Amino acid sequence: RAAGRRAVVAAADIGDPRAVMLAASRITRELKPDILINNAGQFLAGRLADQTGEAVAGLLTTGVTGTALGTQAFLPQLLDAAPGFVVNIGARVAVPGYPVRVQDTSVAYQTGKQALAIFGRMLRQEVSPRVRVSTLYLPAIASLTDLDDPDDVSARLYPGTAVLPLRAVAAAVLRLLDPALPPVEELVLGA
């Protein structure tokens, strides 16, 4: 708001192409979006053999299918905005070379985050320079209610793990959305 921007929110089942298109239609009737933040996702811990098919499908539908459908729905407006912006919120576990411990993730979660990283790279090739596509790789982050005390969240939810304050995430996103700065394709944040 401080930058003179408005936001419109529309709920949809992001795994349903028709629902996503209807939600996008509602939004584009009220404004011409030039920014899309893909932040839908869920975490699924544990061994693949112990997870239900529904849980795995839900994770992949939310993080991969939903991201692709949402981006597709808004792509015409983003291309018209020139520059439009897409920011995909990923996880550090998808960064090549990042040490992944099986007890900290799962096959399904890792697969979804790797797919999101590839989606960002391929979309960038398709729409640059008219749309800037960035992927922001995050460690564990604090919730909206814990903006000022991430250490408390860390102690409660992620014992022994530093938690990135949400303010740091917001600052990074604003940097990615600054048209005066050079584009950043991928940005890895640490805690």
Can you describe what's shown?
The chain has five helices and four strands. Helix 1 (17-30) packs parallel to helix 2 (53-81) and helix 2 (53-81) runs parallel beside helix 3 (107-127). Helices cover 43% and strands 12% of the residues. With 191 residues, the chain is an alpha/beta fold.
Placed side by side, the strands forming the largest sheet appear as 1-2-3-4
Low-pLDDT stretches are: 142-147
Major β-sheet annotation:
4 strands, parallel
Shape: globular
Structural class: alpha/beta
Write the layout of secondary structure elements.
Layout lengths: L16 H14 L4 E4 L14 H29 L2 E8 L15 H21 L3 E8 L11 H8 L8 H11 L9 E3 L3
Parallel strand pairs: 1-2, 2-3, 3-4
Helix pairs in contact: 1-2, 2-3
Short descriptors:
single chain; 191 residues
Please outline what is shown here.
This protein is an alpha/beta fold and 191 residues long. The chain has a four-stranded parallel β-sheet, sandwiched between helices.
